[in-house]
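TL;DR need structure tokens for one chain.
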Amino acid sequence: MAVEIVDNTTESRFEILVDGKVAGFADYLLLPTKIVFTHTEVLPAYEGQGLAGKLVAHALQASADTGLRVVPRCPYVAKYIQRHPEFQNLVD
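>> reply
TL;DR here they are.
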């Protein structure tokens, strides 16, 4: 199982691909200094494999790497940040 995470800027979402197929995504709204995560979803066929956590970790690290503050409107992203204190300093 090949897993890849990409930033699909055209759709304003990070996508996690499994064997080249979209298995899940994290929608966002990009502002000049912030990224607002609005929704995270893993397709039913791919649930229970830890893909959402990998996706959100990648999205948060990419946000940190570009100097963006994070607004976690998505409940999954908010809970992920609570469980991973290394990302708490990103929250706006």
